[in-house]
Specification:
The structure holds 3 protein chains of 3 kinds.
Chain A: H1 8-24, H2 29-49, H3 60-76, H4 81-85, H5 97-126, H6 131-151, E1 161-162, H7 170-196, H8 199-209, H9 211-216, H10 221-247, E2 249-250, H11 252-256, H12 262-273, H13 280-298, H14 303-317, H15 321-329
Antiparallel strand pairs in A: 1-2
Helix pairs in contact in A: 2-7, 2-10, 2-12, 2-13, 3-5, 3-6, 3-10, 5-10, 7-10, 8-10, 12-13, 12-15
Chain B: H1 2-25, E1 26-27, E2 30-37, H2 44-63, E3 67-69, E4 72-82, H3 87-99, E5 106-107, H4 112-125, E6 129-131, E7 147-149, H5 159-171, E8 180-186, H6 189-205, E9 208-215, H7 223-232, E10 236-240, H8 242-255, E11 262-265, H9 273-277, E12 285-288, E13 297-298, E14 302-303, H10 304-314, H11 323-342, H12 347-355, E15 358-361, E16 364-367, E17 380-385, E18 388-393
Helix pairs in contact in B: 2-11, 3-4, 5-6, 11-12
Chain C: H1 2-10, H2 13-43, H3 50-65, H4 71-97, H5 102-124, E1 137-140, E2 145-148, H6 149-171, H7 173-183, H8 185-190, H9 195-220, H10 228-242, H11 247-267, H12 273-299
Antiparallel strand pairs in C: 1-2
The chains are: A mainly alpha, B alpha/beta, C mainly alpha.
Chain lengths: 355, 409, 300
């Protein structure tokens, strides 16, 4: 069990910052909302990738699936989806407050449920794959979903779906969606934190460390893996549904299944912060988001080079991430006792892999 | 009492907002326009053409004395962001331009997909956007009030080719309804709109679609589809998929010796098919928003031919000037005209001035409909003849007769 | 869809065109996939930048062709340049990845892919390019089947290159060292093989093979800085299907994928052509997994 030893003031500071930030910097509301989305991405990825050792490259699938489910539900509650998305392009859906939030709620909820169902089905198929095959297989699922969503005319194919228009003023919309993203991130964090304090965390850590042994010890590995991925899918589906509404336009390639951007970012953020820890993904997401926004503004044209270099340096030379580095720098603060005779770190690199 | 107070507060807030933004959007004697444009990603080659058009227009206008508002001369400048060809990023960056940089005059991004994402943002902040590269009709049926497009909408792009095919069929004593059409379109908002226009005109003539394939965004091979074309021998082949679609199609049509009497495709100029494929590109019909041979003129850029000459002098890399560049320049010209007529920097006044635009430019007439699309300018269809783009339709602008059937040697 | 199937049975000669086109592009897929299998098998690095090296080779060929050098003649130059570049990338990055967690190589090479894409974009601009070979196009069966000479030539070059690599692996000292390292790196080190050099050589060789494949791609297809990803996916599909160290398998899978893409484009429509490659990847993985679980049960 990983007991959370974080002092209470950290939570108070973050909660206060989360509430006050959009009021202090109203112009940055959307960017801060995206920060919470990134935190959610990193947390849900780390649950499966960091804590359980199944490095998925296709978690973005749930994000897009949730977005499409909610889009279809929200539009379907008021009009026929097929006609709405047909190439002629129907009128944009204009709703009142009640209808808007009612349908948004239904969409988000069903997106979450739908994604859990997808996760249960995909668990059966994908969790037999190990190591890099799992990563490549999940990447394949995300890429296939993106291609197939583009060919499905009922959901708008390559032209996508326009989401219902927010009934109120723009600033109000920003604040409302900020609130939703903040809440989602907080709920995800609380849920993950609770999970890590239960036996469940020990079970999935055991799977990460040695799956065969875990199974031999009587842990029902497939069930644990399915639950972990479902939790991840649950929150990702909801975030996708909300993101679609914030963007106002759902389209398969760049909005719903941005495999090489958001899909990879979630992995990089977890690694940057330190995977397999509670706070790592949060720190990684924050740092990454800030770096990204800064380079996107000041390194125009070179931002992707900067990102590529960041990934390489992070993965190759700094893989333990910030939390990992802090743990080995100040082990006593993390409740880790070090046996001086055992702590020489020589010979860390393993020999050749051997085929 | 309560209501008057509320109204007063609102007015005060609006006034403060206008005041604070007015300072940001006009910096000293410079009017700052904002744009999120595709400098990287799949639309980047057209994106750069667009940016060059904006820059060239800004420079030309500034050199000619800039914009006169309220008796004072202002220079134009553009603040760019790179949207990486992704609509979500466009929307996000425009929020930044408007919110953080305080820019209240927007130049559109490149491509329909990104403009569709941009329109709700400008609408939301009630900031006018003059765009030159988003032709999808999805932009003009939503009741948007702040978007103005200088170009013709996308369903007009290839519809003229269908009309031309019907005309030729009748001349040869055939019934247009006997014509078979093969359609290959990229699976994105713009190309699907072009397709919708084609389908509509086909229905009008009762033509039959024998192939209706959609290219994925990163596919660089359509030989399987073209093999089908060869087998089914359609009378017309229409293709649209931005620059890469045009290059892929032109190369593989030559390679598979696809022999269709009428081949029409978009983006011939942008894809440089004549430069790259020479005689293999002979006879292609290419719709264009603008051609340097048309007889349009204005005071800033001179005639269409002058624009062509001066732009090439400023950017020697271009052998032909893509229409994307010309319309981008026209969009900047509309801004200048609107500022001068509004004689103010108030966004609402400027917006109304834009809506009332009725001008002739080197790019063609510009007059916006209620929905914001330009209704004063037709699309023209050009054919590649001896390596030259010659206007063949509509007959009012035609400088050469159409060559039919397209010769394959 | 049924119409299209019907068409195939009405005009069976079309099958010839589809098969030929599939084989010609399949041969190029084989090159990139073989490079991947080599790197994966010898040093256990899953190189996601495979497609980017292909596109890079294509751009260099295009660049040299603007100076009047025929793309085919530029193959040796480009292979040499890419070899050098591969060696440098090995020394700066890949060296630190070997022997690490399986996931590290995927992400690190993804980072390389991003940098290469952008570097190409900054250097050559985002335009779609093709290098013209200037060869004739033959038509057979009354024009129903056409074969561009360049495709035939590139097919021949693929075979020649593959044969050279195989001979090299079988006959030369370095080739033997590479195979020994692939079998057991530690034993190879004990026997006095400089595995560090073997790794560097293998990675560089892979880059050279990809570069050569890229030259061929630039002559028969089109290139663009961001077109590497589909090539990487194809290489992974082929290697996953064939398994490591199985050259005949890689060749068969490569041709199979090329042909499968052509048929799905013909029968289902171009919109499914790309999805086919990705779909096959997932199907193959699942199929392998079922096989594995059978195997496990037998063992148990």
């Amino acid at each position: 069990m990983q007991n959370d030893t974080t002092p209470a003031w950290v939570y108070i500071v973050i909660a206060t910052a989360g509430v006050v930030a959009p009021l202090l910097f109203p112009a940055y509301t959307n960017q801060i909302a995206f920060l919470w989305l990134m935190v959610l991405f990193a947390l849900t990825w780390d649950l499966v990738g960091g804590q359980m050792g199944y490095n998925s490259l296709g978690n973005i699938f749930y994000f897009g699936a949730g977005m499409y489910i909610s889009a279809v539900v929200q539009v379907g509650m008021f009009t026929d989806v097929g006609t709405y998305t047909s190439a002629r392009g129907g009128e944009q859906l204009v709703l009142g407050y009640f209808d808007y939030f009612y349908s948004l709620g239904a969409g988000v909820l069903l997106a979450a449920v739908g994604c859990v169902i997808f996760a249960v089905i995909l668990s059966r198929i994908m969790f037999g794959l190990r190591g890099p095959y799992f990563a490549i297989g999940t990447l394949g699922v995300a890429l296939a979903a993106r291609e197939l969503a583009g060919t499905w005319e009922w959901i708008g194919g390559g032209s996508g779906i326009a989401m219902p228009v927010y009934p109120g003023l723009p600033d109000e919309k920003s604040l409302v969606f900020y609130g939703i993203f903040f809440m989602l991130a907080v709920v995800t964090f609380v849920c993950v934190r609770w999970l890590y304090s239960t036996r469940f965390a020990q079970a999935i850590n055991a799977i990460r460390d040695d799956e065969a042994k875990a199974e031999a010890m009587g842990i029902h590995t497939l069930r644990h893996k399915t639950v972990a991925w479902s939790v991840s899918a649950f929150f990702l589906g909801m975030s996708g549904a909300v993101f679609g509404n914030l963007t106002g336009f759902v389209e398969p390639l760049e909005v719903a299944f941005p495999t090489v951007t958001f899909g990879i970012f979630m992995v990089v953020m977890s690694l940057l912060g330190g995977k397999g820890t509670l706070w790592g993904p949060v720190i990684g997401a924050t740092l990454f988001h800030v770096i990204k926004e800064v380079t996107w503004t000041y390194l125009l044209g070179w931002q992707w080079v900067a990102l590529g270099v960041l990934i390489i340096v992070n993965v190759v030379f700094f893989q333990d991430g910030i939390m990992g580095w802090m743990q080995s720098r100040w082990p006593e603060r993390f409740g880790i006792t070090v046996d001086a005779s055992m702590s020489s770190r020589g010979g860390k690199r393993k020999g050749g892999a051997g085929a | 009492m309560k209501y008057t107070m509320k109204a007063g507060l609102t007015a005060l807030a609006a006034g403060l907002l206008a005041l604070s933004s007015a300072q940001a959007m006009v910096d000293g004697d410079t009017i700052v326009l904002g744009s999120a444009i595709s400098l990287t990603g799949k639309y980047s080659s057209n994106g750069v053409d667009t940016q060059n058009g904006y820059d060239f227009a800004v420079k030309t206008i500034n050199d000619a004395g800039g914009v006169t508002v309220d008796g004072k001369q202002y220079k134009l400048a553009v603040k760019y962001y790179d949207d990486e060809s992704t609509p979500a990023r466009t929307a996000q960056l425009l929020e930044r331009v408007i919110n953080q940089d305080g820019v209240k005059y927007i130049l559109g991004p490149y491509s329909s997909a990104t403009t569709i994402a941009a329109a709700p943002v400008t609408e939301k902040y009630q900031v006018p956007m003059i765009e030159a590269e988003g032709a999808s009709r999805a932009l003009f049926n939503k009741g948007y009030k702040y978007i103005f497009a200088v170009l013709s909408t996308s369903e007009q792009y290839l519809a003229s080719a269908i009309g031309l095919a019907a005309e030729i069929a009748e001349k040869n004593g055939k019934n247009p309804s006997d014509l078979k059409v093969a359609m290959v379109f990229e699976n994105d908002a713009f190309s699907l709109d072009v397709r919708a226009g084609v389908v509509e005109d086909m229905e009008k003539y009762g033509m039959k679609a024998v192939i209706d394939d959609k290219m994925p965004a990163d596919l660089s091979d359509i030989s399987a589809t073209l093999t089908k074309v060869k087998a089914l021998k359609p009378d017309v082949l229409v293709i649209s998929g931005h620059n890469k679609g045009a290059v892929t199609a032109a190369r593989q049509i030559a390679e598979l010796q696809v022999d269709v009497p009428i081949i029409a495709m978009t983006h011939c100029e942008g894809a440089k098919i004549v430069e790259q494929f020479g005689k293999d590109a002979e006879g292609y019909l290419c719709p264009t928003q603008w051609a340097e041979t048309l007889s349009y003129t204005d005071d800033t850029f001179g005639s269409a031919a002058d624009f062509d000459k001066n732009f090439k002098a400023a950017y020697p890399d271009y052998q032909t000037v893509p229409y994307q560049t010309a319309q981008a320049a026209a969009a900047v010209l509309v801004w200048k005209d609107a500022f001068e007529r509004a004689n103010s920097f108030d966004t609402d006044k400027v917006r109304d001035a834009i809506a009332a635009t009725d001008m002739m430019t080197f790019y063609g007439g510009i007059k916006f409909s209620e929905a914001g699309n330009n209704v004063a300018k037709p699309m023209v269809l050009r054919q590649v003849q001896d390596g030259q783009y010659n206007v063949v339709a509509p007959s009012k602008w035609a400088s050469h007769p159409v060559e039919w059937p397209r010769s394959t040697d | 869809m049924l119409d299209n199937l019907n068409l195939l049975s009405l005009a069976p000669i079309l099958n010839v065109q589809l098969l030929l086109d599939g084989m010609f592009v399949g041969a190029i897929f084989v090159l990139a996939a073989y490079g991947l299998a080599l790197v994966w098998g010898v040093m256990n690095v899953k190189n996601l930048a495979q497609g980017e090296y292909v596109i890079m080779g294509g751009y260099f060929a295009w660049h040299l062709s603007t100076y009047g050098l025929h793309p085919i003649l530029s193959i040796p130059i480009i292979a040499a340049v890419m070899f050098g570049m591969g060696w440098i990338v090995y020394l700066t990055i890949i060296k630190w990845v070997i022997g690490r967690d399986l996931f590290t190589s995927l992400l690190a090479t993804f980072g390389i892919a991003l940098v290469v894409q952008q570097a190409l974009n900054l250097a050559y601009g985002p335009d779609v390019r093709t290098a013209e070979s200037g060869f004739e196009i033959r038509s057979l069966f009354g024009g129903l089947v056409t074969v561009a000479d360049i495709k035939l030539i590139s097919f021949g070059l693929c075979i020649l290159l593959a044969a050279c690599v195989v001979l090299f692996m079988k006959r030369s000292r370095m080739g033997q060292a590479i195979r020994a390292t692939a079998q057991d790196a530690r034993a190879a080190r004990v026997m006095g093989i400089d595995t560090e050099r073997v790794y560097a050589f293998t990675y560089a060789l892979n880059a050279a093979i990809c570069g050569a494949a890229g030259v061929l791609v630039s002559m028969i297809w089109v290139i663009q800085p961001f077109y590497g990803v589909p090539h990487s996916i194809r290489a992974f599909v082929i290697v996953t299907a064939a398994g490591l160290g199985n050259l005949p398998g890689v060749i068969m899978a490569g041709f199979g994928l090329g042909v499968a893409e052509q048929y799905s484009g013909f029968v289902l429509g171009a919109e499914f052509q790309q999805a086919t490659a990705v779909g096959l990847l997932v199907v193959i993985l699942v199929w392998r997994q079922i096989q594995m679980s059978r195997y496990r049960q037998v063992v148990e």
